[in-house]
Design brief:
Mean pLDDT of chain B: 89
Oligomer: heterodimer
Strand content of chain A: 15-25%
Mean pLDDT of chain A: 87
Radius of gyration of chain A: 21 Å
CATH class of chain A: Alpha Beta
Number of strands of chain A: 9
Order of helices and strands of chain A: HEHEHEHEEHEHHEHEHE
Shape of chain B: globular
CATH topology of chain A: Rossmann fold
Shape of chain A: globular
Structural class of chain A: alpha/beta
Strand order of the largest sheet of chain B: 1-2
CATH architecture of chain A: 3-Layer(aba) Sandwich
Largest sheet of chain B: 2 strands, antiparallel
Order of helices and strands of chain B: HHHEEHHHHHHHHHHHHHHHHHHH
Number of domains of chain A: 1
Distance between the termini of chain B: 41 Å
Low-confidence stretches of chain B: none
Helix content of chain B: over 70%
Distance between the termini of chain A: 41 Å
Low-confidence stretches of chain A: none
Number of domains of chain B: 3
């Protein structure tokens, strides 16, 4: 390694990404369901109570009930026309496929990808899979990603949805299998010391998100926001690790990204999360 | 064997070898060969030819220690071990000190203090380049400041200014290299040969360095259109961007950091103190001081000391050793006397034209080849001609050898580093492009140096 590389690496490591805090303001929330009448009204009331943290003085709530759409196109057109900045719904609208935990249903599948609007996905009302503590508060919000540093949108949403006095957990799980794969390759390159590589790469991989979380804490303190930041930065097998963390921390709302700049389909990690984590509400960005 | 017995044809033949070596050094990149190997080959050939032709004084190479007579191979006393000790000691010391995170800390603190304003950044980086070049060495200074410049301009999204920043910094490394006796190798060689002390060197060179640094930065800002930011919003945005730099990131241990800072200060003071006549330090020499500080710093990293030995620039040290051997042979075969006779007309040009001619010819020569052989040869020749220590000719060689590196990208190792960083970031800069951009700066610096040598020193 040349001296030039050494110093460039030192300066790049010192150039830390810091959170640019932006207060979350929901102007218009839209509750979409396949229910009608009193059931739809009851759901809407429950949602407003659950998401009271974003229900400000200027927030307008509206409903798109089951009778209001019968095709994906109709749903998208209506959402487009109403232009909400938050959609609240659940999986398998107008379908009984919720009984089989293998998909999101055609409406939600397209909605999360065709619009950039954040979508809160509730446990299906008929499935009775929701954990007992869910849909009451947003005291424990957890943002999860495999690339936390610089994801201001994700963190600002997670902080914005955390109730006063609550905890916002920022979680970064570095995929162990990918790491192992690269190390296996490195172990076959004589010019690179495998043990040093393991130690240094792991340290640097986890340092970036930790530094970023530290900047989030500084922002929370500077803005005097009434919540605290929790930190989970680890190597692991992501889905299994997330399942464990959600149960362990009794998470009320899980926040993660679904859009991927490079593809039309959902972000690689998001789909299995959205399909499998059916017991708690999810905020899909 | 006396010098008088060397035939003219042999002298000319060896002079041809010297020219061939200088040409090979100038074509180092094309030959894909390290300096040490090039000069090493010439040293081996010169010694062999000198031996075969019976031109080397083998019989005189005996060290008398009490009653003991130790025979030395001729290439051992040929090497100026004092210079080698200074270079080895100070490069080890700087390497270990940089491990403490001190230099990156200073660089990042200055970046944050600039609040991301491009003009202020140019001034801070320019001054930092000069100081680092003076305290460390040109190449390390360029590497530190150049790599930070690339990262911070990228952060500020003004990478279009990178070329201007790196060129100004590259040019300033050679100005900073003039500040102290140990700032560059030509200074060490010529200063030692002339008997110029560390303090005298600093007092004489500092005013020029300060003025020319200011002028170079000013001109750089004009030529490359590096201006202050307009408007509060732009200033706020820039300040926010550089605030993400963490100056403490590279500091592994607060104790080692503080120790490194204290030792750096102590090193400069002690090196200066070594120039006080009739003191133990003066007798032991600057090489001893540099090596001692390197050893003290190594104690901090005793278990991984071998890593620092690996990082020593052995190519540079082997290059010096071989170069001194070549020059020694050239002295015995009368090549230096021949060049000295060639330089005599310059010395006879008088107090004004002579030093100016020496300065510009040294600059021109060092712009196309390594300034170290040039400095070593001229120092030897001026010494053999008994040029007085306070003669402006010594300073002409020092200023010319250092500033000549600013004329072309191959003129000095630090400008070569600047060009490497420029190319690494995908910017186009040809040899001619560099000369076109750098020439106004180099000419201005050389003209000011000529005036300074004539009327101030």
């Amino acid at each position: 390694m040349t001296k030039l590389d050494q110093f460039q690496s030192a300066f790049l490591a010192a150039d830390k990404t810091a959170l640019r805090y932006e207060k979350l303001a929901v102007q218009h929330a839209l509750v979409v369901s396949d229910l009608d009448g009193d059931a739809a009204e009851a759901l809407s009331t429950q949602v407003r109570s659950f998401l009271s943290v974003v229900d400000g003085d200027g927030t307008r709530w509206s409903r798109l009930d089951g009778g209001g759409f019968s095709s994906v196109k109709q749903l998208l057109d209506t959402v487009d026309a109403l232009a909400p900045d938050l959609v609240v719904t659940y999986r398998h609208l107008h379908s009984t496929a919720w009984q089989w935990p293998h998909s999101l249903g055609e409406y939600l599948d397209v909605l999360t990808q065709a619009t950039g609007i954040p979508v809160v996905v509730l446990p299906h009302p008929d499935a009775a899979r929701a954990l007992p503590h869910t849909l009451k508060h947003t005291e424990r919000v957890m943002a999860i990603t495999d690339h936390l540093s610089g994801d201001d949108r994700l963190v600002n949403h997670a902080i914005g949805f955390t109730e006063a006095g609550g905890s916002c957990w920022l979680t970064h799980v570095e995929p162990q299998s990918v790491f192992d794969h690269y190390l296996e390759v490195i172990s076959k390159i004589p010019e690179i010391d495998t043990e040093s590589a393991r130690e240094l790469i792991e340290k640097q991989l986890l340092k970036g998100p930790r530094d970023y979380i530290e900047s989030c804490r500084r922002q929370i303190a500077e803005q005097r926001l009434p919540c605290e930041i929790g930190e989970i930065v680890t190597m692991g097998r992501r889905l299994g690790e997330y399942r464990r963390l959600i149960t362990e921390h009794r998470v009320d709302l899980l926040v993660f990204n679904t859009l991927d700049d490079d593809q039309l389909a959902m972000h690689g990690l998001a789909y299995p999360l959205a399909v499998e984590l059916r017991q708690i509400p999810l905020l899909m960005l | 064997m006396t010098h008088a017995s060397v035939s003219g044809a042999v002298t000319v033949g060896f002079a041809g070898l010297l020219v061939a070596m200088i040409v090979c050094l100038a074509l180092e990149e094309k030959l894909h060969a390290k300096k040490s190997v090039i000069v090493g080959v010439f040293a081996v050939v010169c010694l062999l030819l000198g031996g075969l032709l019976d031109l080397l004084p083998f019989d005189e190479m005996v060290l008398e220690v009490g009653e003991e007579h130790i025979e030395l191979p001729i290439y051992i006393p040929a090497i100026d071990w004092g210079v080698v000790a200074i270079i080895l000691g100070s490069s080890l010391f700087v390497d270990i000190t940089s491990k403490s995170g001190l230099f990156t800390w200073i660089a990042i603190v200055l970046t944050k203090a600039s609040k991301g304003d491009p003009l202020r950044l140019l001034i801070f980086y320019g001054v930092m380049t000069v100081v680092f070049s003076a305290v460390l060495n040109n190449v390390t200074a360029m590497i530190i400041v150049g790599s930070l410049t690339a990262v911070s301009l990228g952060r500020l999204e003004i990478s279009d200014k990178l070329l201007g920043f790196l060129l100004v910094e590259g040019l300033l490394t050679n100005v900073g290299g003039l500040l102290t006796l140990i700032s560059s190798v030509p200074n060490i060689i010529v200063g030692n040969a002339a008997g110029i002390s560390f303090v005298t060197f600093f007092v004489n060179a500092a005013p020029y360095v300060v003025v020319v640094t200011g002028i170079t930065i000013w001109l750089g800002a004009k030529v490359f259109k590096i201006r202050s930011l307009d408007g509060d919003e732009a200033r706020r945005e820039a300040a926010q961007r550089v605030s993400g730099f963490d100056e403490n990131d590279g500091i592994e241990s607060r104790f080692k950091f503080t120790f490194g800072a204290v030792m750096l200060g102590a090193f400069i003071v002690t090196i200066a103190a070594a120039s006080i006549p009739d003191t133990v330090l003066n007798s032991l020499g600057m090489g001893y001081v540099a090596l001692s500080f390197a050893v003290i710093m190594l104690v901090q990293y005793k278990s991984i000391a071998d890593r620092f030995y690996q990082a020593v620039d052995w190519d540079l040290l082997a290059f010096f050793a071989a170069l001194f051997v070549v020059i020694n042979v050239m002295e015995h075969v009368q090549v230096l006397a021949l060049i000295g006779r060639g330089l005599a007309p310059i010395l006879e040009l008088g107090e004004t034209v002579g030093p100016v001619t020496m300065l510009f010819s040294s600059a021109l020569a060092s712009s196309v080849t390594d300034n170290i052989p040039l400095a070593a040869m001229l120092a030897k020749i001026l010494g053999n001609l008994n040029v007085a220590a306070d003669s402006p000719y010594w300073w002409s060689v020092i200023f010319g050898a250092n500033l000549g590196g600013n004329i072309t990208p191959i003129g000095s190792a630090s400008t070569l580093v600047a060009v490497t960083i420029i190319h690494k970031h995908g910017l186009e800069l040809s040899f001619v492009g560099f000369v076109r951009a750098a020439l106004p700066f180099a000419v201005l610096q050389l003209v000011l140096a000529a005036g300074y040598v004539l009327w101030v020193l």
